[in-house]
Amino acid sequence: MKKLKRKWLLYALTGILVMGFGFSVMGEALIAKASGKSFVNWFLVGTAGLALIFAGLSVFGQAVVYKSILDQNKNGL
């Protein structure tokens, strides 16, 4: 039970941090586009930002799975 709770916390925090970093990278891509930088520059940075956002979302989704297992164990289901 303690190991599962530690996994839940690790996945939740990691997912939130990766999503936040992805939003920051995406913001940099938007700034680069608005500044008139080359297409390749802002496109690649924006794509990396989107990949980070979705990766963080997947990690956070796994944290939700662990939390539901914890709740089921707690309630005796």
Task: Explain how this protein is built.
The chain is mostly helical and 77 residues long. The protein has one domain. Helices cover 91% and strands 0% of the residues. The chain has helices at 2-34, 39-75. The radius of gyration is 17 Å and the shape is rod-shaped. The mean pLDDT is 95.
SSE order and pairing:
Layout: H1 2-34, H2 39-75
List keywords for this structure.
91% helix, rod-shaped, mainly alpha, 77 residues, single chain
Number of helices: 2
Number of domains: 1
Q: Characterize the largest beta sheet: strand count, sense, and whether it forms a barrel.
A: none
DSSP strand content: under 5%
Distance between the termini: 14 Å
Which of globular, elongated, flat, extended, rod-shaped describes the shape? rod-shaped
* Poorly predicted spans: none
The H/E string reads: HH
Please identify the structural class as seen in this structure.
mainly alpha
Percent range of helical residues: over 70%
> What is the residue-mean pLDDT, rounded to a whole number?
95
The Rg value, from CA coordinates, equals: 17 Å
Number of strands: 0
Question: How would you summarize what this structure contains?
Answer:
91% of the residues lie in helices and 0% in strands.
